[in-house]
Amino acid sequence: GESVGLHLPTLSVQEGDNSIINCAYSNSASDYFIWYKQESGKGPQFIIDIRSNMDKRQGQRVTVLLNKTVKHLSLQIAATQPGDSAVYFCAERLYGGATNKLIFGTGTLLAVQP
Amino acid sequence: GAGVSQSPSNKVTEKGKDVELRCDPISGHTALYWYRQSLGQGLEFLIYFQGNSAPDKSGLPSDRFSAERTGGSVSTLTIQRTQQEDSAVYLCASSLELGGKAFFGQGTRLTVV
Q1: Please, which residues 44-83 of chain A have a Cβ atom closer than 8 Å to chain B?
Q2: Quick one: pLDDT at residue A5?
Q3: Residue in A with minimal Cα distance to B5
Q4: A103 near B CB under 8 A
Q5: What percent of chain A clears pLDDT 90, i.e. is strictly above it?
Q6: How far is CA B102 from CA A31, B7, B93, in A?
Q7: How far apart are CA B72 and CA B45, in angstroms?
Q8: How confident is the model over A22-72, as pLDDT tens digits?
């Protein structure tokens, strides 16, 4: 997608390995977090979400971990496949009053080597 | 519709012209969001709608940018007197309720020449 560029952090993994993508968020008041996957030329695709009252949530081949103490999110992808190659964004929700927006991180490019 | 639909998918315009970008959200979604994504960058929040009203316009980069939503459905983002720095992918998203899980369209790639 448009976000792929020379300045993106890149994680290169071998097919079949597990991947861990990390994200630091900025606002301690954020109460909801989402991971998105963006393939080249496409819009971001929802992967998994987690609310701030949880510290772990599992989906199909993916797990999100939330550490509110250090404002850190991670996305774990099990048995990474070539189709997982994309840019991954974490997003935090700022919600309250007139504000309702997802604030996105800069993204991490996951490159899966066959 | 089945997903968020944006049109056009690509738009090339001359500097100084006005452009309109359209977003059709998922049917029944009350919240709608516009983001901008420049090459090599993350997603920059522009504006959101709850129904037809836009409580937070703080993300619009300048007064050349405006957006409206009618009938609680379709939204239009208008950029007047386009500049080269407006070139980006403009993404629209919608969610069932305010602050909920947001789904994105494919985006409109705007190129100002």
Answers
A1: 44-46, 49
A2: 36
A3: A43
A4: yes
A5: 72
A6: 15, 19, 6
A7: 20
A8: 999 988 888 899 999 999 989 999 999 999 999 999 999 999 999 999 999
